[in-house]
């Protein structure tokens, strides 16, 4: 998939501003950004649901706009807000999709089990919870074994158990060779699943790379938290005084913490003092990168 110079305007608002990126075959790619960053608009342009004002997008070597019947059978799309056929049960929804895509009805049963809805097969779609409807929407996107799967905030309405199970499902889809492109607000989700991510704000790509690359580039300090009672603040300062590393000792209600960009000699000193019990080491993560790039102010 290749997007080149994509622009989308709504009056004076530039929702997508000259975005260029490529996604490799078989890659798990994340599009991240705060509310209003242009994620969904960009994804809908890539899917062929919206016409760009400028630029081009190709998916599997074919233009995504105007919509091409040859492409529609090779991609799967799960929208942020999904609609189902009225008055049909979860099982009937999937069997309808199977018929539309020329797949056997048995595929519906397989997908219900895959997304953990086998016990809801006879429940009408409008009676499903938000998380259950989300899983049904994803199952509908997978009916025809698409080569590329587009998911717009797929785990937004899911509880922790359902979210983890869906992660396992998405990993399995990707492992079988499908390209997966998703938008998400969950930095943990992106860091866990994605080979590469693009961070958007104001319709522009601010950073693009692997989560590990972006985290390393942030050059953030490591926080080493000691278990309560292991060392006082003064004891920690005395211990790390001779260490060849710039260390800030912090104390709060949870105990003593050592903050440094060179954790190895600090950890070695703590080991020599037998002060490793209950220790926690926390480095930067993708959320830190996200906040450094997009700021902390509330978005509408």
UniProtKB/TrEMBL annotation:
Q: Which terms does the UniProt entry file under GO BP?
A: response to antibiotic
Alphabetized InterPro entries for the sequence: AAA+_ATPase, ABC_transporter-like_ATP-bd, ABC_transporter-like_CS, ABC_transporter_ATP-binding, P-loop_NTPase
Q: Name the GO cellular-component terms.
A: plasma membrane
Q: Which SMART domains match?
A: AAA (SM00382)
User: Which UniProt key words apply to this protein?
Assistant: Antibiotic resistance, ATP-binding, Cell membrane, Membrane, Nucleotide-binding, Translocase, Transport
Give the matching Pfam families: ABC_tran
The protein's location, in the record's own words, is: Cell membrane
Q: Which GO terms describe its molecular function?
A: ATP binding; ATP hydrolysis activity
Q: Which residue intervals define the domain ABC transporter in the entry?
A: 1-227
> What topology does the record note for this protein and the membrane?
Peripheral membrane protein
> PANTHER family of this UniProt entry?
ABC TRANSPORTER ATP-BINDING PROTEIN
- The protein in question is named ABC transporter ATP-binding protein
Classification from the root reads: Bacteria, Bacillati, Actinomycetota, Actinomycetes, Nakamurellales
């Amino acid at each position: 998939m290749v997007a080149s110079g994509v622009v989308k305007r709504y009056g004076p608002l530039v929702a997508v501003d000259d975005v260029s990126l490529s996604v490799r075959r078989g890659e798990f790619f994340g599009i991240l950004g705060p509310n209003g960053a242009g994620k969904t608009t960009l994804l809908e342009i890539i899917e062929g649901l919206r016409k760009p004002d400028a630029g081009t997008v190709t998916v599997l070597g074919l233009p995504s706009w105007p919509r091409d019947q040859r492409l529609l059978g090779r991609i799967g799309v799960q929208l942020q807000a999904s609609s189902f056929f009225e008055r049909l049960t979860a099982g009937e929804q999937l069997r309808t999709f199977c018929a539309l895509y020329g797949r056997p009805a048995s595929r519906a049963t397989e997908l219900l089990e895959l997304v953990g809805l086998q016990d809801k097969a006879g429940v009408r779609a409008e009676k499903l919870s938000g998380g259950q409807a989300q899983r049904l929407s994803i199952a509908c996107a997978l009916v025809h074994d698409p080569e590329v799967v587009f998911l717009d905030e797929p785990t937004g309405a899911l509880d922790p158990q359902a979210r983890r199970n869906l992660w396992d499902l998405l990993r399995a889809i990707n492992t079988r060779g499908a390209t997966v492109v998703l938008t998400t607000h969950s930095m943990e989700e992106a860091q866990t699943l994605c080979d590469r991510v693009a961070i958007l704000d104001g319709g522009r790509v601010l950073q693009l790379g692997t989560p590990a690359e972006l985290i390393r580039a942030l050059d953030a300090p490591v926080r080493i938290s000691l278990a309560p009672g292991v060392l006082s603040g003064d004891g920690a300062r005395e211990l790390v005084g001779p260490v060849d590393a710039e260390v800030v000792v912090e104390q709060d209600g949870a105990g003593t913490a050592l903050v440094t960009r060179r954790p190895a000699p600090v950890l070695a000193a703590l080991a020599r003092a037998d002060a490793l019990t209950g220790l926690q080491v926390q480095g930067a993560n993708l959320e830190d990168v996200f906040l450094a790039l997009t700021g902390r102010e509330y978005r509408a």
